[in-house]
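Think of the structure tokens as a kind of shorthand, similar to the way a musician reads notation: each symbol stands for something richer, in this case the local conformation of the backbone. In the example below we present two proteins back to back. Begin with the first one, reading the sequence and then the tokens, and try to describe in your own words what changes along the chain.
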Amino acid sequence: MDNKALSIFRYYKNPEGHYFPLIPATLKYQNKIFDTDALVDSGATISIFQSDVAKYLGIKIEAGKQIFLGGVGGHIKGFVHKLEIELANKKFICPIVFSYEYFVSFNLLGRLEFFKRFRIIFEEKKNYLKLE
């Protein structure tokens, strides 16, 4: 058996009693660091974070590559930036979209770059997520 590092994250329970697979994430841009939680979203192609995160880090959102994202909630315009991210003690460069039109309460971790770095196991019955 392989001795891979295993990280287990309990799902977040919101006030209405719904559970979500949130994990801690650290973003680094130049000399600034931002710690937050993000929803692991297997349905999202790319990660998307709220514009307040970009503002804190000193990122000029419009300086990134413009992209249009579509999903259940409609379409939004965003801008892709490549940032260093740390998840479960692994650091790597990840494309992250910042948008002034993103009003969901969670930052999202999409598949691009993130999913290929981990074996991801959603334990829905037990309300936790495993990363190895």
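Once you have a description of the first chain, move to the second and do the same.
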Amino acid sequence: MKINIKRINDDFLMEATNDTNNTLLMDGSESIGGQHKGMRPMQLLLVSIGGCSAIDIISILKKQRQDIQDFQVEVESDSIKVEDHSVYKDIEVKFLIQGTVDLDKAKRAAELSFTKYCSVSKALEYGSNVSYSVYVNGQLA
């Protein structure tokens, strides 16, 4: 998987594009000069965990022939400062499902998502090794 991110103004507004040309906008917080024209990167982390688990749960419930008429996810967290950066200590994900859906099946689907299937929650749980390189005018720094 490859994501490309391009700065589109003189401040912090950026557009991210995936390998199938879907896009989203990111911006910095107002406190550093952002203009609320896109989601902040830390917000996208919450979007990712909510979206990943939602896809799992919907998939599981559809296979069980549950009739989902409305599906919403609320994700809440407060970031805490650690050294020079912020992290999410506790993330609460709430699924609001309407329809003819068995309560036990919905609960089990959520459990399976977070214990087995959701790659985003697993990445947060176990951590990921992150590497980086920097190129300036095409030259590796």
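Compare your description with these statements about the second chain. The mean pLDDT is 89.
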